[in-house]
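pasting for ref
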Amino acid sequence: TYAEEDLEVLELGYLVFALNNLLTTALLYCLVRWEVSPSSESRSLMGAFLAGLGLCNQHTLVFYTVPVVVFVLAKLGLSGGLSALRLMRLAGMFVLGVLPYGYLPYASSKRSEFSWGDQMTWQGFLVHVLRKEYGTFRLFSGKERTSTGSMLLEGLLQYGQHFLQLTWYLGPLLLIAVVGLVMGGVSVPHRGSLGVMLMSVVLYLVTFHILANIPLDQPLFMAVQADLILHILMGVGLAQLAHYVPRMPLMSRPPASESFAAAAGGTDGSSMARVGLSVALLSALALEGFSQQDQSANWYSSNQAANIPRVVLPGVAYHPRAPNKFSLADLFDANYGQMPIYTFTPPDNDISCQGRYNFLPMGLLKRVRRASEPVRIGDWLDLHQAALPTFPLPSVHAYSPSTWEYRLLGEVLDNCYAAARFALLEGQKAGSKEGLESTVLLLEKVVELHPAASADHLFDLGYAQQELFQKSPTMDRLQHMVDSFGKFMRMASPRDDRRHQVTTVLNHYSTATGSR
């Protein structure tokens, strides 16, 4: 991705999920209001419109739309209120809701910046609507994807654990209260709507975990939309139980803050993987275009070339192995020197840059530099630190590993660690004391703050402190080195080959200091 001076955060992932949750709750709200007054045609028409609009935004809404439609049509049919004219009006409002799809061919013809795909042909339109580049009713197209249905039981178990932890283990009790409300003999105004919600969330979770091919370690696998509906149902269950606890009036209100946190807390993939730049190129090519099941985006150059006039595209599409297409190194060769080049970590299967380009950590991105160009370690580390987030980083002890804050801290410190390793290597080559001092400070920060500090972190810190001690020996530096290597020995696996190296170093300095 290009343009050093004009960075713009495009957190589109949060918009997609938030809008999906909004349209889902709006649809269910229409259902609840309609059940109270089935003769109100305006509410059923609005529900049909919202169903179509929601399906334009995200296909997963179908798991809620189908049960709602079946319930409404069945109830209208049994009561004699389902005429052909009313059915046509409902279908018309649904079609009106999906009309945004009709805008796609026109938008595609404009070759707008950041537009995806080519919807000016029927084939391109269907590819886009059915998400064939990712896989219809699939969530993940990366190389870590799993096969369909292979993680059903494990995924449901993991979601159950997530739900229990999210609700402090009270969730099942509140849901049992809702089930009792639906199946009980007492007249309940919204019994049908509650039953639809219960069936919908079961359908959603089971079908989601059958079709979802995203790795289990990805937070998106937690089916964030189910959290939203379950929290709505838990609020109803809490209100029902509150009737038996008259001395606790606050219990009659649903936990709105918890519901909001659950609805807003879901992300897919890396918390910074959606950061785009104003002239987006490399991320789209190297990350998006290649990750989609090794299918290159053949339309990209013709579609987007006008939006990136400063960028030279050395072929029709990116692909590191396909003939007549270009690799990352080809792209860098064609544009190097024209503007600063930044990227995320390149894909493992594109090795074209090895020996030709280095990727210097710069904030949360990587700065592309020719391997032959020298690097001034101190100046580069200053730029790297200045490019990191300026807001206070979250505390590692305040958040669980599934939260965005925890992941953000890990990503910031992982990039600091990558910068420190590169600086350690380059500083060792140049024999720079200042570079080693900066590296030690950076590694100390990583070890202190990283939510998952490892033996690798401690080994590199001890090694950097050893190099610095050899340049400028002081007792404080020696003690810091011994402390770091000692922590490494306690954390490292017994089979770690570096243990012998560290033991030799510690014995050497122990003997040297003892002889003094």
